[in-house]
Write a structure and sequence with these properties.
The chain contains three helices and 13 strands. The strands form three sheets. Strands 5-6-9-10-12-11 form a six-stranded mixed β-sheet, with helices on one face. A five-stranded mixed β-sheet has the order 4-3-2-1-13, with helices on one face. Strands 7-8 form a two-stranded antiparallel sheet. It has 257 residues and is α/β, with parallel strands linked by helices. It binds fe (ii) ion (2 copies).
């Protein structure tokens, strides 16, 4: 199954016209598509199924819990499928079934280990202030982000423990907005306490997935952790040079080897 992957288009300020990639059998949108949600309209009538995993910016200046339901209704009305701690199985042209596990995954601030958690949370406080969101009527702060992150991790861990292949699927693809490994840290900034707001350490979960797609860091990645291929195809902001070298028409084959 050939996957087209796009994330971090940031169409609330960026200009970009997404086009279907030749041969792609599914389009995965791995978050930060448009803070205003208006640009999801661009994917209406897309020739192949479109899977949407919410990014953090889809929740800017909103109540996170209310927005999860609203975003689902919004994208469903356009014929897209939201994967918010949810699984879906799609078959390719050869009848091979791929299980997609989608989760925003938020940051648990433990990527440098629990001893560094408080330091990582202090660094993450800045991003939560900028976000101006609430959850259950309270400020959506780093404590709330971690709470949600652990819910996502528990859900992912349970699903991935069912096996890379299993009853009803021949392969598993995990899709998260936040990165599953420190190896995805943006080389421009290196590894610092703020990196914990971008990367989690989910390498222990990786044996359950053949491919792990993510976004959030505004750079591209394609590397392996044992048998799992980790890929990001984030676009980012043109004014920062992040879109240099970005190819929105690339595809990745699930059954490549
Ligand atoms: Fe982004
Ligand atoms: Fe993001």
């Amino acid at each position: 199954m050939k996957i087209q992957l796009l994330s971090d288009l940031h169409l609330e300020t960026e200009t970009f016209e997404p086009l279907p990639a030749a041969g792609a059998e599914v389009l995965v949108l791995a978050g930060d598509i448009d803070t205003s949600w208006r640009s999801f309209e661009l994917f209406r009538g897309w020739p192949v199924p479109v899977l949407v995993v919410p990014g953090n910016h889809e929740f800017d200046r909103r109540d996170v819990e209310a927005a999860r339901g609203d975003l689902r209704r919004h994208v469903q009305a356009l014929g897209l499928r939201l994967l918010d701690d949810e699984a879906v199985v799609l078959a390719d042209a050869q009848g091979r079934r791929v299980r997609f596990l989608g989760s925003t995954r938020w940051s648990d601030f433990d990527v440098f280990g629990p001893a560094q958690r408080e330091r990582a949370k202090r660094a993450g406080g800045y991003f939560q202030k900028v976000m101006q969101s609430t959850r259950h009527g309270e400020v959506f702060d780093v404590v709330a982000v971690r709470e949600l992150a652990l819910e996502c991790r528990a859900w992912l861990a349970g699903e991935l423990a069912r096996g890379e292949a299993g009853p009803g699927w021949d392969a598993t693809v995990a899709v998260t907005h936040f990165a599953p490994s420190l190896k995805s840290a943006d080389p421009r900034y290196g590894r610092q306490p703020g990196t914990a707001s971008f990367c989690n350490d989910d390498e222990a979960l990786m044996p359950g997935a053949r491919l792990w797609l993510h976004g959030h860091l505004h750079c591209r990645h394609d590397y392996r952790v044992a048998g799992t291929r980790v890929v990001s195809n984030a676009r980012g902001h043109v004014r920062k040079g992040e879109a240099n070298g970005f190819d929105g028409l690339r595809t990745w084959e699930v059954f490549a080897d």
